[in-house]
Task: inverse folding
């Protein structure tokens, strides 16, 4: 039932010209389940030509027509959610319920951007001189090069495709080679909905080869990337050199702050669910657990018990609540973070080991009293590890929360309105969620500050990143 994945260029699915393919593995078994076509420069040239043609056609299609087509793509995702969820779990490892949620969420995102695309209103600016009209038009920026990762094969791609399509741009998406088939289903949704040839193109390949070819190319006018900060800086540098607009959604290292006065049971329940969702391979996952001294032992005990109750196994088995990590690299990386933290004096409360000798499983892990020198307190772990430390005062915890160059998401639990308000103001982060997990909805901004990126992938601001503002001033004769 797992399909091989072809390239989608100029409205047609097909192999790469060289016939190159790469194996796709099931992370629950480590075995090959299919193949993905690998593009070379000849395929990229075809995609560029198609995107140029697609842009010329699509940018002239009225926003209302674009909206109607997009709504059909959203319906495709909903109608096929069960089938797509199976595909995603086979290639990515997450529990099938999470895969289904991601697929349905894509429907919501497409709907929202479709609606907002109808509202890319211009403005009239009062002139200083009688008889002069000053108008601002919003125009699509042009063909977009997009790069998306394997942790949310649909969710990272749908925000980019939806913004491009809603604003009248065309797009070449380099999807995730490890998890290609569910991302291809998203592209199929747009194709079946009636998006003209060349508007949405999908390629896979060697990431650096594709980005180094597409980003400097004169046809491409915008670059958007989701992935690590290191790669994001590389691509942003290349885009800057060639004067391309960018949206960068990069790594995070979210502080999760729990004050003495918080509802501890609620904090444990929500933070544990979000720590171990997608086996922790989430850019906005809570990472540095900073717990106020009086409730530290109580929080650690309750969080550890909740962690021990997680059922790890093949995501296709509905009884499992955490699946395999997406690939072998992550298991090695997670093992490195845990060993380093223990070597530096952290206490292991639970987990800390690989599971079995088949697939890429790692135990959900809780480390406490983790010193600031441990790598996990400084680098994005991107895995199922919660690292905890006690704190004493508000100022101390804010300074720790802001210590790193990351600034994507932050979480806090407190029953004091005054503390909540002060946190909202003082935390250096693109998103701050207090007393609940309320981020990543289509209509709200989604993005980071500092090294976590540039621009938003949610809310109306996401669309503006795909639009040029053109000023036209006209004197009556
Ligand atoms: P990686 O840094 O090599 O790759 C991360 C992503 O960037 C992948 O999708 C990859 O295809 C892409 N990529 C890498 N080099 C590229 C290039 N030169 N041009 C274009 N795309 C390129 O490593 P990885 O092992 O896949 O992931 C490791 C780290 O990446 C994680 O620890 C995490 O910090 C980060 N990451 C973040 C997100 C996110 O949602 N922000 C998603 C996936 C990975």
Result:
């Amino acid at each position: 039932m797992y399909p091989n994945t072809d390239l989608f260029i100029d409205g047609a699915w097909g192999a790469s010209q060289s016939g190159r393919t790469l194996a796709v593995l099931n992370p629950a078994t480590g075995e090959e389940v299919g193949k993905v076509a690998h593009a070379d420069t000849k395929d990229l040239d075809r995609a560029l030509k198609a995107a140029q043609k697609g842009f010329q056609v699509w940018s002239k299609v009225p926003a209302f027509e674009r909206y109607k087509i997009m709504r059909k793509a959203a319906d495709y995702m909903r109608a096929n959610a069960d089938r797509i969820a199976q595909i995603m779990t086979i290639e990515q490892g997450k529990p099938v319920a999470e895969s289904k949620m991601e697929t349905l969420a894509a429907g919501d995102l497409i709907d929202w951007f479709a609606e907002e695309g109808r509202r890319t209103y211009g403005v009239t600016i009062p002139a200083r001189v009688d008889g002069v009209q000053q108008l601002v038009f919003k125009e699509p920026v042009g063909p977009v090069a997009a790069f998306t990762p394997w942790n949310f094969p649909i969710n990272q791609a749908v925000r980019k495709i939806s913004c491009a399509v809603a604003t009248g741009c065309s797009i070449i998406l380099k999807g995730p080679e490890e998890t290609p088939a569910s991302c291809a289903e998203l592209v199929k949704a747009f194709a079946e909905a009636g998006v003209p040839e060349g508007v949405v193109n999908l390629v896979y390949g060697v990431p650096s080869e594709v980005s180094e070819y597409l980003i400097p190319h004169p046809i491409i006018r915008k670059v958007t990337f989701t992935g690590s900060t290191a790669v994001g800086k590389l691509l942003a540098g290349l885009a800057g050199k060639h004067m391309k607009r960018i949206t960068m959604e990069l790594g995070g290292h979210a502080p999760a702050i729990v004050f003495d006065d918080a509802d501890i049971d609620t904090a444990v329940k929500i933070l544990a669910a979000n720590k171990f969702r997608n086996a922790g391979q989430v850019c906005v996952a809570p990472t540095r657990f900073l717990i106020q001294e009086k409730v530290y032992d109580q929080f650690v005990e309750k969080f550890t018990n909740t962690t021990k109750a997680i059922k790890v196994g093949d995501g296709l088995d509905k009884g499992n609540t955490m699946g395999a990590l997406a690939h072998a690299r992550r298991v090695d990386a997670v093992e490195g973070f845990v060993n380093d933290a223990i070597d530096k004096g952290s206490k292991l409360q639970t987990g800390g080991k690989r599971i079995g000798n088949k697939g890429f499983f790692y135990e959900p892990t809780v480390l406490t009293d983790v010193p600031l020198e441990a790598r996990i307190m400084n680098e994005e772990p991107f895995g199922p590890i919660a690292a905890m430390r006690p704190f004493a005062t508000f100022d101390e915890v804010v300074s720790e929360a802001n210590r790193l160059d990351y600034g994507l998401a932050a979480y806090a639990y407190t029953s004091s309105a005054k503390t909540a308000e002060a946190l909202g103001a003082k935390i250096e982060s693109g998103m701050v969620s207090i007393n609940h997990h309320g981020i990543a909805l289509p209509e709200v901004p989604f993005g980071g500050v500092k090294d976590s990126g540039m621009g938003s992938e949610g809310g109306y601001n996401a669309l503006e990143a795909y639009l040029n503002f053109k000023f036209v001033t006209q004197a009556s004769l």
